[in-house]
Amino acid sequence: MDIGIGLPNTVPGTEPQRLLDWARQAEGAGFSTLGTIGRLVYQGYEELIALTAAAAVTSRIRLTTSVLLAPLYENAVLLAKQAASLERISGGRFVLGAGLGGRDDDFAASGLSTKGRGRRFEEQLREMKRVWSGEERGFAGGIGPRTVRDGGPELILGGGTAASFRRVAEFGDGWIMGGGTPEMFAEAAVGVDAAWREAGRPGSPRKLSLAYFGLGPDARAQADGYLLDYYGFLGDVAGQVAAGAAVSPDMVKSYVSAFKESGCDELIFVPTGSGLEQIELLAAAIA
């Protein structure tokens, strides 16, 4: 199982230079990917821009939106071009993780309704794949740039419903769980695999998950301070999310072991703080 680390693009107070230093250090520590999470109505850096900055100061580590809320990007052709540009600039390292999003205020700020977002998402996916395939759509020269990977960036889709699993099988290269226990992952993975087989797809989808972490002497306070704020809109559930953050090396090790046993291909540890020591502490915990 690959172990990735999140970029602290949504951690309040993170300065631009810290994002660049974090990306360099994460690559040097041997993590498989730099992941981003994102919301619109929150203090943080937009994911595609943050990962483009990271691409400029790294050369090997994957760059994954985990996940980008695609329905907020209404112009699917423009989003396809942005994703293709980042994939090309990074030498094929970009992985587009995309999902629906569930916060009403993100959609309200965009002048959009949450109703029909699943249908709009599928229309987006079809349009983006047409662009990445090189289909000209009647425009001279087509819409580029041409991606390093045939057919466009690797596409990983989020969601925990039967409809989400069907989308993975129809459009995606894999699936990602945005948070939860290893047991929840294993149960959902069965549904993803079943949808994949039913669609007649060869092989198996790549499966990823996120897990929050914070390490060091103030780990619990750091995790609670960030996660209770970030997920405050969920009410009491925010406390459950915060309680599940890995705040000790033993918790990190247990998550790695349990997710690996559950069939996870890549586990991305998302930081709850942006101190560079967090990278070293996480690397030591999984060593």
TrEMBL record:
Keyword DNA-binding: no
Keywords carried by this UniProt record: Flavoprotein, FMN, Monooxygenase, Oxidoreductase
UniProt xrefs under Pfam families: Bac_luciferase
InterPro entries the record matches: Luciferase-like_dom, Luciferase-like_sf, SsuD_RutA_monooxygenase
Keyword Acyltransferase: no
Residue ranges of domain Luciferase-like in the record: 8-231
Protein name: LLM class flavin-dependent oxidoreductase
Native source organism of the sequence: Streptomyces spinosisporus
